[in-house]
Design goal:
GO terms for molecular function: oxidoreductase activity. With 150 residues, the chain is of the alpha/beta class. Helix content is 36%, strand content 15%. It has a single domain, classed as NADP-dependent oxidoreductase domain (TIM Barrel), CATH 3.20.20.100. The chain has a 4-stranded parallel beta sheet, covered by helices on one side. A two-stranded antiparallel ribbon has the order 1-2. It is globular and about 40 Å long.
Length: 150
């Protein structure tokens, strides 16, 4: 496997990133075509054996079950310091006015939830899944900065 720097950071990632949107419980969320945990684990293990160290998921994929499956498989098959975990924030995860979006409140709640589901105390790359036109970009960027500094 070849590895490259991620953007202008010092982080080295495999040229291939395994997207984990297809992992999850089919009866949760809007993706009825997802793979179950056993099939997902087989793919993740194979990716690790091929040298892939970069795994991307999101809080909304199968209502969080993609993060759960990905986190458990990586904990079982890899050393945490040897993999790069990316996840995303934006979509609706709970009812109510702050259950989605990129407000400070939503970001802070969702990073905690993602960390719990992934079974780790940090993610290497935390991304916004799409823009939130109802939240000032300054609020979003400050919240993301604070997540990085925490």
């Amino acid at each position: 496997m070849k590895y490259v720097k991620l953007g202008s950071s010092g982080l080295e990632v495999s040229k291939i990133c395994l997207g984990c949107m297809s992992f999850g419980e089919a009866n949760r969320g809007s993706h009825t075509w997802t793979l179950n945990e056993e099939s997902s684990r087989t793919i993740i293990k194979g990716a690790l054996e091929a040298g892939i160290n970069f795994f991307d998921t999101a809080n909304v994929y199968s209502d969080g079950t993609s993060e759960e499956i990905t986190g458990r498989a990586l904990a079982d098959f890899a050393n945490r310091d040897e993999v790069v975990i990316a996840t995303k924030v934006h979509g609706r995860m709970r009812p109510g006015p702050n259950g989605a979006g990129l407000s400070r409140k939503a970001i802070m709640a969702e990073i905690d939830n993602s960390l719990r589901r992934l079974g780790t105390d940090y993610v290497d790359l935390y991304q916004i899944h799409r823009l939130d036109h109802n939240t000032p970009i300054e609020e979003t960027m400050e919240a993301l900065h604070d997540v990085c500094k925490a």
